[in-house]
Write a structure and sequence with these properties.
- This protein is α/β, with parallel strands linked by helices and 162 residues long.
- The chain contains 5 helices and 4 strands, in the order βαβαβααβα.
- A 4-stranded parallel beta sheet has the order 2-1-3-4.
- Helix 1 links the parallel strand 1 and strand 2.
- The radius of gyration is 15 Å and the shape is globular.
- The chain starts with a strand and ends with a helix.
């Protein structure tokens, strides 16, 4: 059974699909594609069934990432199949920990930027109401944190295999 990571933002059309695409690429580049499953969801179901925001898609494609995405809402029963739930900001972190059925499930929730040692603020700002530059900044933050997250996931996969 693969190590499962789910990225979560509010509507699952901007930040979390961007993080999913970037991290999936990192996992594939590291040769861990068969050992790590990556997906995303939103704390709310406002955009369920919609594709990613066109600005997200544009930024991802310009950086050579795949961007095939359909938004969905995170559900508490998913904790049972997930190893790591990655929140994009502190509001998502709180919402997910409240939703967690057990303390062990709440412990699976982490902030993405906590994996970036250079981050001075652990939130990835929501680019939705801003301009295109906000989406580009979001991508830079996601890419910076993805390296540390990949190291942590690789270690967890190795421990599981031992």
């Amino acid at each position: 059974m693969p190590f499962s990571v789910c990225f979560v933002c509010t509507g699952n059309i901007c930040r979390s699909p961007m993080a999913e695409s970037v991290f999936r690429a990192r996992v594939e580049e590291a040769g861990l594609g068969d050992l790590v499953a990556v997906d995303s969801a939103g704390t709310d179901g406002w955009h369920e069934g919609d594709g990613a925001d066109p600005r997200t898609v544009s930024v991802l494609r310009a950086a050579d990432y795949e961007s095939d995405h359909v938004a969905r809402q995170f559900h508490a029963d998913w904790f049972a199949r997930l190893d790591l739930v990655i929140a994009l900001d502190a509001g998502h972190l709180r919402a997910l920990r409240r939703l967690a059925p057990t303390a062990a499930d709440a412990d699976k929730v982490r902030l993405l930027r906590s994996y970036d040692p250079a981050a001075d603020d652990l939130d990835v700002p929501d680019p939705y109401y801003g301009d295109f530059e906000g989406f580009e900044e979001c991508l830079r933050m996601v890419e910076a944190a993805s390296e540390g997250l990949l190291d942590a996931v690789r270690e967890a996969v190795e421990r599981r295999a031992a």
